[in-house]
Design goal:
Blueprint: H1 2-26, E1 33-37, H2 41-45, E2 54-59, E3 64-82, E4 90-103, E5 111-117, E6 125-130, E7 133-134, E8 138-139, H3 140-143, E9 151-155, E10 158-168, E11 174-183, E12 187-192, E13 198-201
Parallel strand pairs: 1-4
Antiparallel strand pairs: 2-3, 2-13, 3-4, 4-5, 5-6, 6-7, 6-8, 9-10, 10-11, 11-12, 12-13
Length: 202
């Protein structure tokens, strides 16, 4: 009986020691956090595509491309990291990222992907790729600022002003042979590829 009582007392004391050591070690740790950073309604409006609409473009060679929306996905880029030391609770950030894709059958202009993203701190950006060509990330807040609109294009006798956004090479340098002209609230109004083929939104 004495042996059983001694064993219980020893286990109790060891538990107290472990608890005391752990609590002492973590006493300076901040609380665990789990924060969500969402795109605002205004930022989302800068990408005027529903993911279910159809986009039509005509080229300077008389070709046409019809791209169909394949929906819109809304997810979070989640990252966890230690706040102080590995002994402290982790902090987690969840940054909203939306993806909208359009796909067509014309190999000359077969797909567009828009990815507006909250980077967990302002400002939010949008990434655009066309036919697998990556274009410069652009600040969403700049897309609606008319003072940034330095380029124009005429479509069906209507003049559009917009921002010229260039493509990027594999080493993330600007390639001016590919560019798009982006207008708010119309979106992409012109695409020019390095083969000198130009596509205008209809």
């Amino acid at each position: 009986m004495k042996t059983k009582i001694s064993t219980i007392l020893i286990a109790f004391l060891l538990g107290c020691i472990v608890c005391f050591t752990t609590c002492k070690k973590n006493s300076g740790c901040p609380d665990a956090t789990n924060t969500y950073y969402n795109l605002s309604a205004d930022e989302k409006s800068k990408i005027p595509y529903s993911g279910t609409d159809t986009l039509i473009f005509l080229s300077n060679t008389g070709d046409s491309a019809k791209l169909f929306g394949h929906g819109k996905t809304d997810n979070y880029n989640t990252q966890s990291y230690w706040q102080a030391t590995p002994d402290c609770p982790q902090t987690t950030t969840n940054c909203e990222i939306i993806s909208t894709t359009y796909i067509g059958s014309n190999i000359g202009f077969s797909n567009i992907k828009f990815i507006p993203e909250n980077l967990c701190e302002p400002p939010a950006i949008v990434s655009i790729s066309i036919n697998g060509i990556k274009f410069q990330d652009y600040l969403l807040l700049q897309l609606s600022d008319s003072s940034n609109y330095h380029d124009t294009t005429i479509i069906n006798s209507k003049l559009y002003h917009g921002i010229k956004i260039f493509s990027l090479n594999a080493n993330i340098t600007i390639d001016s042979t590919n560019y798009i002209i982006y207008n708010y609230p119309s979106g992409i109004v012109k695409v020019k590829f390095s083969n000198n083929q130009t596509w205008l939104k209809q």
